[in-house]
Specification:
It is a single chain. The protein contains 14 helices and twelve strands. Among the domains are: 5-67; 90-352, 3-Layer(aba) Sandwich (Aspartate Aminotransferase, domain 2). The mean pLDDT is 95. A seven-stranded mixed sheet has the order 2-8-7-6-5-3-4, sandwiched between helices. A five-stranded mixed sheet has the order 1-11-12-10-9. By secondary structure, the protein is α/β, with parallel strands linked by helices. The protein starts with a helix and ends in a 7-residue tail after the last helix. It binds pyridoxal-5'-phosphate. Residues 79, 137-139, 176, 178, 229, 231-233, 258, 260-261, 287, 299 line the site of pyridoxal-5'-phosphate.
């Protein structure tokens, strides 16, 4: 029997409510079943004859029961987490209205909303006449930055193609791996991504950049662009953008800033200086699905000189079935590499209307205060040690014990046990040769008491492993 629309939506709403409220109930963070046993036991097959809408509720229950609860305070693994209700509402309505962002004709109010956000985010990074587009994430934002650098350096290369084998892009040694992916896509190749050495805190060293530029030229390479990182993935380090911008200008290079993780610092009067000089850059990518806690995906690419992005995305008049308007700025498909594009702007706009700039600033300051608190707790504990200086909300630390033979194995095992028991999820990363636990403050459901429980659990497992005790069943 098919459910009527009202009952169906009520049933879905009940599940949503339960999911939201479950964040405060005791229970596992991730399913206990292994992937192999899920593969064996869950009925996920696609039927020849459909089951009808009756199956939907059961299928959704199965899905919810076997998913990681990313809205719980114990979820602190990636650079995103938590669940904000206004943004969730925007996401649901965006899916329901199913507009595509290529023309204003098909997405009138969504176009205005996206333009409003792009304009405001440009103002915040100091691009007074900037433009941009929503992308599928920071990785593609970085790729757009590199493509715009190519189009600027070789005008028309969008049409003629180019040989990238002698081009070089300069990034911090701790930059995100998406720059490698982009180098492949744009035809430069991994080997021409030059990784510039960092200082002891993980920031790109301008003096080493100068050396690498000179060396690359001696080798016959043509420098194309510098990618600075504002908030590195592991340590949360901010490259010295102001100095890097001066070098880029002097050397005639494009400066792209990967602010996927750290972009939100611009809201905070206390922390905006982390990105000092960003207004001198040429392009910026900024993920709202990270620090701004909007559901995945929500990411913007911002550019100071809109004309370069327009040239890059120019498809002449091939798409006569879509683009009729002369008002190019209003048909956002002229500024995107995508054709159909989902409306990622609505959820961010709804959330921003609720919080205002002031609310974002409070959020950033609160996460930083919580990270300070966590760092202080680590410093006070005899069995814990910080593994890197903190600039952002990344807290890189490890458990330590004089009796431990191999701290790397020990910390990897601690993380494994946390996941096995379903209590906490935290990232395992490397700094140099050391395995560390990287906790990030980004999930707004995290509290001081959940942070304390987390450290207690890390120490509990560390002590047990050192005493030779097996993981609890
Ligand atoms: C510094 C940095 N840049 C870019 C990215 C890629 O962003 P996305 O996952 O949105 O593609 C990440 C992802 O964590 C990141 O940490």
């Amino acid at each position: 029997m098919d459910l009527d629309a009202a009952t169906f939506i009520d049933e879905i709403a009940a599940r949503l409510l339960d999911h939201v409220q479950a964040k405060d109930r005791p229970g596992r963070l991730s399913p206990s079943a292994s992937l192999a046993s899920m593969r064996r036991t869950l009925d996920l097959g696609l039927p020849l004859e459909g089951f009808g809408t009756d199956s939907v509720l059961d299928d959704l229950d199965t899905y919810l029961a076997n998913s990681v609860k990313t809205n719980r305070p114990e979820f602190m693994n990636p650079l995103w987490g938590g669940l904000s209700l206004p943004a969730l509402a925007g996401e649901i309505i965006a899916a329901a209205t199913n507009n595509s962002m290529y023309t204003y004709e098909l997405s009138p109010v969504a176009t205005l909303i996206e333009q409003t956000l792009i304009k405001r985010m440009n103002e915040l990074v100091g691009f007074s006449d900037g433009f941009g587009t929503f992308t599928t994430g920071g990785s593609n934002g970085n790729m757009l930055g590199m493509l715009c650098a190519r189009e600027k350096h070789l005008p028309g290369s969008t049409k003629t193609g180019f040989d990238g084998r002698n081009m070089a892009v300069f990034v911090s040694a701790e930059a995100h791996y998406s720059v490698l992916m982009s180098s492949n896509v744009i035809g430069i190749g991994h080997q021409n991504i030059i990784k510039v050495a960092c200082d002891e805190h993980g920031r790109m060293r301008p003096d080493r950049l100068m050396e690498e530029l000179e060396f690359a030229r001696q080798e016959g390479l043509v420098p194309l662009c510098i990618v600075a990182t504002a908030g590195t993935t592991v340590r949360g380090a901010f490259d010295p953008i102001d100095e890097l911008a001066d070098i880029a200008h002097r050397e005639g290079l494009w400066l792209h800033v990967d602010a996927a993780w750290g972009g939100a610092c611009v809201f905070s009067t206390t922390h905006a200086s982390l990105m000092a000089g960003v207004e001198k850059a040429d392009s910026v990518c900024w993920d709202a699905h990270k620090m701004m806690s909007v559901p995945l995906m929500c990411s913007v690419f911002l550019i100071k000189e809109p004309e370069v992005l327009r040239r890059l995305c120019d498809h002449v008049s091939v798409a006569h079935y879509l683009f009729h308007s002369e008002a190019a700025l209003d048909d956002l498909g002229r500024y995107s590499l995508q054709c159909a594009r989902r409306n990622d702007a609505l959820k961010l706009w709804i959330e921003w209307r609720v919080r205002g700039d002031a609310g974002w600033a409070t959020m950033v300051d609160q996460h930083m205060a919580d990270a300070d608190h966590l760092q202080a707790s680590i410093n006070e504990h005899p069995s814990l040690e910080m593994m890197s200086e903190r600039m952002w909300t990344n807290v890189c630390f490890r458990y330590t014990n004089p009796e431990a033979e191999d701290l790397n194995k020990l910390n990897a095992e601690i993380r494994h046990r946390l996941i096995q028991e379903g209590s906490f999820m935290v990232s395992r990363s490397n700094i140099g040769e050391d395995v560390i636990l990287r906790m990030v403050l980004v999930n707004q459901n995290v509290t001081r008491s959940s942070l304390k429980r987390f450290l207690d659990r890390v120490v509990h497992h560390g002590d047990e492993i050192c005493r030779g005790l097996p993981a609890e069943a």
